[in-house]
């Protein structure tokens, strides 16, 4: 009974983490809009907004990386559902293989993203644009996003092994509700 309660609590925490990533990604998209409008207003008034393009780029990267885990669990990533459906009884094995490879690759990517943040901070690396932003700041967002994606892939892999199904909600091609 305690294991089931722990599992439900962990599921709620992970789902809240993925949802928070989606919300943060949406906020960064709004920030891009605000930056673009601010840059337009600055141009119309003859003012200068140095670094606005770089900040919009940082926000785009942040929106992308924070959205990865949320998008994965909502079926927004590209999956080859036709192939998986055609595999029939071997589908579970193919999904296990895919989630295992994806978990390993996302952990590898997350490790090196965190390492890049560490070295950028240690070396006091800054962007080459007008803004001279310390690079560890936008790289931190990438590292957090890749860690969330790795957690999502591992979560799906473990759930597939233990429960026989994954967390991906929206299946669009080749799925039947028989």
Short description:
The chain has 5 helices and no strands.
Characterization of this structure:
This protein is mainly alpha-helical. The chain has one domain. It contains 5 helices and no strands. It has helices at 2-45, 52-73, 81-86, 91-122, 136-163. Helix 2 (52-73) packs parallel to helix 5 and helix 4 packs antiparallel against helix 5 (136-163). The longest helix is centred in the N-terminal third of the chain and has 44 residues, at 2-45. The protein is elongated and about 65 Å long. Residues 173-178 have low confidence and may be disordered.
Count of helical segments? 5
Number of domains: 1
Count the beta strands: 0
Q: Which quaternary structure do these chains form?
A: single chain
- The value of Rg in angstroms is 20 Å
* Overall mean pLDDT: 88
Shape descriptor: elongated
Parts with pLDDT < 50 across at least 5 consecutive residues? 173-178
Strand content: under 5%
Q: What distance lies between the first and last C-alpha atoms, to the nearest angstrom?
A: 32 Å
């Amino acid at each position: 009974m305690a294991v089931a309660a722990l599992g439900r609590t962990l599921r709620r925490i992970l789902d809240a983490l993925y949802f928070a990533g989606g919300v943060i990604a949406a906020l960064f998209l709004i920030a891009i809009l605000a930056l673009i409008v601010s840059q337009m207003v600055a141009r119309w008034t003859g003012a200068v907004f140095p670094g606005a393009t770089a900040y919009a780029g940082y926000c785009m990267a942040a929106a992308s990386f924070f959205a990865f885990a949320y998008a994965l669990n909502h079926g927004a990533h590209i999956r080859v559902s036709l192939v998986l459906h055609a595999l029939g009884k071997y589908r579970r094995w193919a999904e296990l293989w895919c989630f295992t490879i994806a978990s390993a690759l996302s952990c590898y990517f997350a490790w090196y993203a965190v390492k890049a943040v560490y070295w950028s901070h240690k070396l006091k690396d800054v962007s080459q644009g007008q803004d001279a932003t310390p690079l560890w700041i936008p790289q931190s967002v990438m590292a957090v996003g890749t860690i969330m994606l790795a957690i999502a892939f591992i979560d799906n892999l473990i759930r597939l092994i233990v429960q026989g199904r994954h967390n991906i909600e929206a299946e669009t091609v080749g799925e039947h509700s028989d």
